[in-house]
Amino acid sequence: MIRANYKGENLLNRYQKYLEIGYVILCGCFFFVWSLSKDLYYAPDEIMRYQIPEYIFNHGVLPRGDIKELIDNAWGFSYAFYPNFLGPILSAFFMKIVSFFTVNEFALLVAARFTSVLSGMAAVFFLLKICGRLFSEEVKWLVTILFSLLPQFIFLSSYVNNDIICTCGSSIICYAWICGLQDGWNYKNAVILAIGIIVDTLSYYNSYGWILCSFFLFIFSYVLQKKEKRDYKEMFRIGCFIAAIVIVVAAGFFIRNAILYQGDFLGMKTLTLSSEKFAIDDVKPSNRYTPLNRGMSLYEMLDSTEWTGQRWIPYTIKSFIGVFGAMSVFLPDWIYNVYYILATVCAIGFLGQIIMWVTKRTGLKMESSEKTALFYGSVFVAFCIPIGLSLYYSFSVDYQAQGRYCYPSFIALAVMLGTGIEWYFSKLKPQFSFILSTIVSYAFIAITILAFVSCYLPS
Hints:
Elements: H1 2-36, H2 46-59, H3 86-99, H4 105-134, H5 137-148, H6 151-156, H7 163-183, H8 187-201, H9 208-223, H10 232-260, H11 268-278, H12 291-294, H13 298-303, H14 312-321, E1 323-324, E2 329-330, H15 333-360, H16 369-396, H17 410-425, H18 430-456
């Protein structure tokens, strides 16, 4: 009897594994179809982003930021000033592979976009793993479908950008956190965390909050252990192991920047100076029409509609859900309203789950309520930091109420809202949970297909 149960469990686990892999591949095919549908001038910033892998493909070396052919005529800078070369290197690699068969310009562009397609697939894969560790089977699939088919997520997975790469990195980091807290920090989990940190380090600065939170979560995961289990020598050994991997892989790009740009290892100051020198007058950093230059307060900026015709928060939320083209192609209002209602209901459920944990002192698949608090506290901080950075950028650098700048919060939002869904489903009978999960999943699949057919393709 025990042997039969063991085989049955193995068969079920194998079935789930194949189902997960099949879903990730299916998502990748959908992302790839989106990437075939538009030219280079459709997505925001893709022209400037694509210049970097194109240069690497043509010359075989990393570009300097001050190369004249890369500096945008209007903005006066190039993204090559930044040391975030993971995406461009991968895109150039795929372009090189495709070039063995054709050097058609659009084919090379699609090859460069394949980095985003793979990043989206990886994010979906780790989202499945995260939800599988935290939630029931029904909630795992419901949350994965809701977030992996979010129109803006798919859009970011279809063109050359760094936002989807750092979303991938944050999903790897979040999964490493859960493995470390549930299973302990062995070398396997340390390697997963190091990979996530590397991806975020070499993708985009607005995801660095995940790296900061990883430092504190790693340390406190040892501090919160029972006295007899604490092993600070192990913490130091594994911590140094993680740091060594990250430094070996990523440090060279920052050292290169420091050498090229008089110590500016992040490239931000040099990029600003280039923009001040070469940009057209209206978009020079000193002349930009920003709330700070206007003498406005942060509250006044949030309440203002003069930049986009809408306030910062609703405009950012809409473009987090789905706005295509150069922030010009919107979904029908009813689709946004459906997502608003869903997010509100799930947020209430999340608060209900938090209250239950506080009163009952139980952890969700963690060995202690303290580790549960550490995990969700870190997730919440990692959720807030990209939003805070986006606010700061709009206020003081360049008003950009774009949801894509908040996408490092994507995985954290999925975890929190998924926890809210789990709270509701825990009060239902299993058969009702399955039926409700199936209905909602198919409803949002239909919404995504509708967005693709009626909004994305015609635009």
